[in-house]
Amino acid sequence: MRCPYCRHPDSRVTDSREQDEGQVIRRRRSCLECGRRFTTLEEATLAVIKRSGVTEPFSRLKVVNGVRRACQGRPVDEDDLAQLAQAVEEAIRATGVAEVPSDDVGLAILGPLRDLDEVAYLRFASVYQAFSSIEDFEKAILDLRSEHRLAADPSLSTTRPDDSASSRKDPRR
Ligand SMILES: [Zn+2]
Q1: What is the pLDDT of residue 168?
Q2: The pLDDT of residue 156
């Protein structure tokens, strides 16, 4: 890491500590040439594998941008979107893999988005899961309805295993 003042390539680490629960390492450095001090941040990258095979760093901003259209006109603000993106990142990091397919990012969005706003969820799911007919909407809405019933009366839960929208990939099923 070059000194930001004089571009000298060598520096000495004077302090090193973790932040964000160890996901980031922050180092204080002192330039061996000019002696000035600067800070570097080191973060393990979480990579997303796009359908093209190209990988790119996971980006909360991309998650936010991906769901923002689905949230248009809904009572969802920027804080909600930021929290959703954080929940998505945490869910993906919790799986313990350093590279995830972009489809898995979409799957990780569905749950938190459903909790946030069901209309936005239906919009997002319809695009992400390529709903091809009105029956696809009907099924997704039935799933939501039965969850509402479950929430109101948990004794119904024995009749139905969790086959929520997130588990179906084939739109023709
Ligand atoms: Zn320097």
Answers
A1: 46
A2: 66
> How long, in residues, is the chain?
173
Query: What single string gives the DSSP state of each residue in the chain?
Result: ---TTT--S-EEEEEEEEETTTTEEEEEEEETTT--EEEEEEE---EEE-TTS-EEE--HHHHHHHHHGGGTTSS--HHHHHHHHHHHHHHHHHTT-SEEEHHHHHHHHHHHHHHH-HHHHHHHHHHHTT--SHHHHHHHHHHHHHHHHHHH-GGGGGG-----GGG---TT-
**pLDDT, position 89:** 93
pLDDT at 152: 82
Interval between CA 3 and ligand 1 midpoint (Å): 5
7 C-alpha vs ligand 1 centroid, how far in Å? 6
Low-confidence ranges of the chain (pLDDT < 70): 21, 156-173
Angle between helices 78-94 and 60-68 (to 10 degrees): 130
Structural tokens at position 53: 């095979």
CA of 27 from ligand 1 middle (Å) equals 16
| Cα–ligand 1 centroid distance for 11 (angstroms) | 8
